[in-house]
């Protein structure tokens, strides 16, 4: 078993700190009841998909891949910012409150928008690489 690189661990910690602070700020500024659209989680997940797609494209095209940057952005920042599990709990609360249409819309739009965001951001990142 190899020992973790302390620089990578520090990058994950620093990115996680930034992502967690952003997530808390969003949650506190946009609270939602089970019968409302959960804008905080939606915004965090879409923002994380955009960041991961864009910087993932930039970082993966470089050889060798700068592992500390990848860990900071991917594992740390986006890992702490985004939350699929919170989305699932919000959907369950909507279903428990008989908000079936809202739950279905949130599930479909949340996943669809996340996939679209990462695809668009990846494409944008690749275009930037071609111009540099």
Description:
The chain has helices at residues 6-29, 39-60, 67-81, 84-96, 100-131. With 132 residues, it is mainly α. 27% of the residues are buried. The model has no long low-confidence stretch (mean pLDDT 92).
Question: Residue ranges: pLDDT <50 for 5 or more in a row?
Answer: none
Number of strands: 0
End-to-end distance: 39 Å
* Alpha-beta classification: mainly alpha
Mean pLDDT: 92
Radius of gyration (Å)? 17 Å
Structure described in brief:
By secondary structure, the protein is mainly alpha-helical.
Give descriptors for this structure.
132 residues, 0% strand
Fold blueprint:
Layout lengths: L5 H24 L9 H22 L6 H15 L2 H13 L3 H32 L1
Helix pairs in contact: 1-2, 1-3, 2-3, 2-5, 4-5
């Amino acid at each position: 078993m190899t020992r973790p690189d302390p620089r990578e661990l520090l990058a994950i910690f620093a990115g996680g700190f930034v992502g967690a602070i952003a997530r808390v700020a969003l949650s506190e500024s946009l609270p939602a009841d089970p019968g409302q659209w959960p804008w905080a989680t939606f915004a965090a997940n879409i923002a994380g998909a955009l960041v991961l797609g864009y910087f993932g494209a930039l970082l993966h095209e470089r050889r060798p891949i700068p592992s500390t940057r990848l860990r900071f952005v991917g594992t740390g920042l986006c890992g702490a910012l985004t939350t699929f599990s919170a989305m699932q709990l919000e959907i369950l609360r909507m279903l428990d409150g008989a908000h079936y249409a809202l739950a279905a819309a949130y599930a479909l739009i949340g996943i669809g928008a996340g996939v679209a965001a990462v695809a668009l951001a990846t494409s944008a990142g690749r275009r930037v690489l071609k111009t540099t």
